Amino acid sequence: MKIRISKINGWRDGIELILAFWLVISPFAVGFITSSAASGTAFIIGSLIMLFSFLGMEEEQPWEEWTTLALALILLLSPWVFGYAAMVAATVNVLVVGGLLVLLTIMTMKHEYDERHAHQ
Predict the structure, then answer these.
(1) Structure pTM?
(2) pLDDT tens string 100-119
(3) Among residues 40, 56, 77, which one has the least CA distance to residue 5?
(4) Is 116 buried (19+), middle (13-18) or exposed (0-12) by CB count in 10 A?
(5) What are the domain boundaries of the chain?
(6) SS3 of 85, please?
(7) Is residue 32 predicted with pLDDT exceeding 50?
């Protein structure tokens, strides 16, 4: 059972790492580096998710899933909370990445729950 969960986590953490790396470089790649709110949000949340993805690859941690989910939800709300919703490229970027992160995290949490309770 532990091996299966670890394989799923490794796959999901790898995708999270790619998405987080994209967040960090997206202000340059997409062109919203001039907005400190948009670029700062992408850089800070992307860096934190990269850190937690690395920690998740090292050892399974339930708090890592919850933290990543919270950061992804903050990312989804950030255009309106931090006032850069009028910047279409930045807003679409964080909505797509945030949505994918929420989806991946919920899928993993459900899979881990199912695995833990399947053998009881």
Answers:
(1) 0.84
(2) 999 998 988 887 777 777 76
(3) 56
(4) exposed
(5) 2-118
(6) coil
(7) yes
